[in-house]
Amino acid sequence: MQHAHPAHDVRITGFGSYLPALMHTNATLPALDDPLEPADLARIGVHRRGWASEGEGIAEMATLAGRRALDRAGVTAADLDLVILANWTQRRYLPDFAPTVKRLLGAERAFAHDLGCACAGFLYGLATATEFLRNPRYRRALVVASEQTSRRARPGSRATVILGDAAGSFVLERAGRDHDPGGGQLIDYELASDGAHAGIMEITEAGWVHSHIAQRELCALAARSIVEVSDRLLARNGRTLADVTWVVPHSGTAGVQAAIVAALGLPAQRVLSNYAQVGNVSSASIPVALDHFVATGQVQPGDLVLSAAVGGGWYAAAALYTMGKPAPREARA
Q1: Mean pLDDT value across residues 231-255
Q2: Residues 217-227: what's their mean pLDDT?
Q3: What's the chain's average pLDDT?
Q4: How many CB atoms lie within 10 A of CB 166?
Q5: Alpha helices in the chain (DSSP H)
Q6: Is the pLDDT of residue 6 over 60?
Q7: Could you check whether the bond before residue 95 is cis, i.e. omega within 30 degrees of 0?
Q8: Where does the pLDDT of residue 324 fall: very low under 50, low under 70, confident under 90, or very high at 90 and above?
Q9: What's the rounded Cα separation, in Å, for the pair 133 and 117?
Q10: Can you give the pLDDT at residue 92?
Q11: 80-99 as b/e, with b when 16 or more CB fall inside 10 Å?
């Protein structure tokens, strides 16, 4: 039996993304300390990635991605009840970013807050917003992930080839019994965390990401965690992977993607990632990829999508949703 909430149906009515104006190709990247051979670059699998410039901070990129999602949903920022911003790459004590995003958007009556959860932040944000929207006090939410992942790569290291900057967002709306705002349905989600793996990755005092685990072990842990949350999510909703049209996971690395495909036992063409075009953009990877594949026509209305992510800490998350056509602006109440 499906896990459903007919009286408080949560819909995905808009989505959007933003990539920096500066998109580095492998040829335009600054020189590495240890130059990579063409075969190495091919294994890494990233051909271009964005580096945010002046005027493209966390809040600014989030605002641009959010406006695109609002436009697609046919609503304005004034219609929002809450704004959730996922970010870890530019964390600071004060101020947080979400209130600034709310102000830049013009979401005057919304409340806003930041959320971490590393690369799983966007899916944790979707889960948080979903539960708020099941309260009749709230109707519309914007969930946005904005990351400057390139800032966490030590200059001159091969991480600069992999990591990129981007923002992506979803508009979620609660539909009552007599009102359907259109869009796709957010069917359910699954969250997990495991502090036993908290020490496998950290940010050094210099600000660079540093792993304390072999890459092969990291790939295996990521794949295992994604399979576990995905299996629980699908089983609770009476679904199997055979019912899923597309799997759109957090991009991670080429090795993580290959491990996920193998662990799920799916044909590689059913797992969608634009990692090669944008690099690892952390928590923004799922909405950025979804926007890309909708724009190319590969993801269609009615498709059932499974998205999953892991994040250092250790976090895992999965969401199951359908894609739909946004309702016309005049249908919005």
Answers
A1: 96
A2: 96
A3: 93
A4: 32
A5: 38-44, 58-73, 98-105, 121-133, 159-162, 215-236, 254-264, 275-278, 285-295
A6: no
A7: yes
A8: confident
A9: 21
A10: 81
A11: bbbbbbbbbbbeeeeebbbb
Distance of CA 297 to the CA centre of its chain: 20
Active site residues: 119, 250, 280
Place of tokens 């199997």: 240
Cα pseudo-dihedral 40, 41, 43, 49, rounded to 10: 150
For 178-187, b where at least 16 C-beta lie within 10 A, e where not — what string? eeebbbbbbb
Using one digit for the tens of pLDDT, what is the confidence trace for 49-78?
Answer: 999 999 999 999 999 999 999 999 999 999
Q: Which two tokens stand for residue 41?
A: 């670059």
Structure tokens at 214: 């072999």
Q: Which residue has the tokens 């309702």?
A: 327
The number of helices, as runs of H, and strands, as runs of E, in the chain is: 9, 13
Sign of CA dihedral 290, 295, 298, 300: positive
pTM of the predicted model over 0.85: yes
Higher-scoring residue by pLDDT: 180, 37? 37
CB atoms within 10 A of CB 167: 35
Domains belonging to the chain, first-starting first, are: 1-333 (3.40.47.10)
Statement: residue 331 has pLDDT above 80 = no
- DSSP-derived secondary structure for 201-252: EEE-TTS-EEESS-HHHHHHHHHHHHHHHHHHHHHHTT--GGG-SEE-----
* Residue 42 identity (one-letter amino acid): A
* Residue owning tokens 């979620």: 172
CA atoms within 13 A on the CB side of 124: 23
